[in-house]
Design goal:
Charged multivesicular body protein 2b like protein, mainly alpha, Snf7_fam, coiled coil, elongated
Length: 155
Amino acid sequence: MREQNRNLRRAQRDVEKDRRALERQEKQLVLTVLAKNLVTVRKQKARTYTAASKITSVGNQTKAMHSSAKLANTMANTTKTMVSANKDLNPQGIARTMHEFEKESMKMGMAEEIVDDTLNSVLTESGDEEEEDAVVNQVLDEIGIEISGKLKSVV
C-alpha cells in the first residue's frame, strides 16, 4: 500500500508537472498569438495613415486643378478684354496727342520763364530798395525806435 501511495503521489506530481508545462505552453501560445495580432493591428494602422495621406494628396491635387481651371478662364476673359481694348485704341492718335502735349508743355515752360524774368526785373529796380528802406526808417522813427543806436550798443 505504501508503494502504491508513493506511486499515486508520484503520478499526481507528474500530472501536475505536465499541467504546469501545458499552462506555460498555453501562455506562450497566447503571447505569440497576441504578438502576431499586435503586429497585424500595427500594420493596419500604418496602412490607414498611408490611405489618409493619399486621400489628402488627391484632395490637394483636385484643388490645384480647380484653381488652374479658374486661372485659365480668367486669362481667357482678360485676353478678350485686351483684344477689345486694342481694337478701340488708336496708337497713332495717342502718340500724336502725346507729342502735341509735350510741344505745348515746352511752350508753356518758355512763356513762364519769360514772365518770371520780366517780373523779377520790374520788381528789382534800383530805386525800390532805397524807397523801401526810407519807409521802414520812417515807420521806426514814428514809433520811437532808432536802429542805428541799437545796433551800435549791441556790437
